Amino acid sequence: MDRLTVASVASGAGKTSVIVGLAKAAKEKVGYMKPFGNRLLYRKKRLWDYDASLMYNLLEMGDDPESVTLAFDHSKVRYMYDCESIRSSIVSMAKNQIAKKLLIEGGSTLEYGTSVHMDSLSIASYLNSPLLLVLPGDEDWALDAACYFKKRIDTKGVTLAGVVINKAAEPENFTETHKGAFDEMGVNLLGVLPRIPILEKITIDYLADVLFAKVLTGEPGLSNRVESVFVGAMSAERAMKDPNWGKPGKLIITGGDRSDLISAALDSHVSAIVATNNIEPSPAVLSKAHDQNIPVLLVALDTLKAALQISQIEPQISKDDHEKIDAIAKAVRENIAIDELI
Fold it and tell me: More exposed terminus of the chain, fewer Cβ within 10 Å: N or C?
């Protein structure tokens, strides 16, 4: 079985996106596992890692989270396992994979899980797997990180397959300017992926999941994307004079009792309404939203807290977001030396 452990040095570097692209671009079926989960999702009365759930659906691997994720919680791992039992459990998990090629996802950062022997380097070592490092596209930082982590990886006895630079502003320029520096370090630059704008957008259904919101109406519009956010903390008349009011695809966050502002928003190319303070908008407003297939989400948070939480949401890929998945697969096929990896 060919194995590849994919790790990142920073949260949000795009490790999962690269894995999705590699899996979709592969010439034959691949398997997947993420031994130490860190993004919890409760589905079908069981705990899943969000990334593992996504890959399980994409690869049609079944419905058993325990076959791809060993644990989620540091304290539980310390209580239940020692280093040897973790190693043997991860090795056994990999052996049970049917596919000839296996992608193993590390934690959010290279050091995540180190205290419980489940960091990316340890996992790669247990499975005798080369490691692919995903770095964000800041030029100087990427070079520093590649140099630093190459030394650290070498001390672990793990083979560095190479690095992929993600979210680069100018991929061709990055390669031309820095390929020689990577070669001098002995690091294989396997590809440079461009910034893909659609990956930075969240959908309303994902927003509803994160906010634990109740969808009052407009279910057909849950696939809408949030292009901008407008906090409605003023009168409808004043809001409509704001330059940001005319932006298409905006998300309106306002109190559920602000019928005047919500009604005006429904006439202004809105992606969804977040009604705060657990106050449902009037039946007339909900009927108008229903007729336009505009989702109205009800949350218990006040407007300020809802806006703050939404601003901190990290965009993710959902199994049904084929536009994002296809964009990733296309970018990987065009920019990464896939044959050197899987």
Answer: N
Residues paired with 38 in a beta bridge: none
Phi and psi dihedrals of 273, rounded to 5? -120, 130
Amino acid in position 93: M
CA of residue 163 relative to chain centroid, distance:
19
Q: What SS3 state is found at 244?
A: helix
Chain-wide mean pLDDT for the chain?
Answer: 90
Residue of 130 and 26 predicted with greater confidence? 130
* Rounded Cα distance, 247 and 68, in Å: 42
How far apart CA 40 and CA 162 sit, in angstroms, is 29
Q: Say if residues 9 and 109 touch (Cβ distance below 8 Å).
A: yes
Structure tokens at 85: 């039992």
Q: Cβ of 132: how many Cβ atoms within 10 Å? A: 30
Starting at the edge strand found earlier in the chain, the sheet holding 2-8 runs 30-33, 101-105, 2-8, 131-136, 160-168, 189-194
Query: Looking at the domain that runs over 202-311, which CATH code has it been given?
Result: 3.40.1390.20
- Decide if pLDDT at 29 tops 90: no
Q: How, if at all, do strands 131-136 and 101-105 pair?
A: unpaired
User: How many other C-beta atoms lie within 10 A of the C-beta of residue 109?
Assistant: 19
In the numeric block, the tokens 């998945």 are attached to 325
CB 100 within 8 Å of CB 1: yes
- For the record, the structure tokens of 26 come out as 């592969």
Are residues 69 and 51 in contact, defined by beta-carbon separation less than 8 angstroms?
no
172-181 pLDDT, tens digit each: 999 999 999 9
- The arithmetic mean of pLDDT across residues 134-149, rounded, is 87
**pLDDT-wise least confident of 55-59, 105-109, 119-123, 295-299:** 55-59
Between the two ends of the chain, the Cα-to-Cα distance in Å is: 10
Q: Are 252 and 265 in contact (CB under 8 A)?
A: yes
Domain residue spans in the chain?
A: 2-199+317-340, 202-311
Q: What CATH number does the domain located at 2-199+317-340 have? A: 3.40.50.300
As a whole number, mean pLDDT of residues 18-35 equals 90
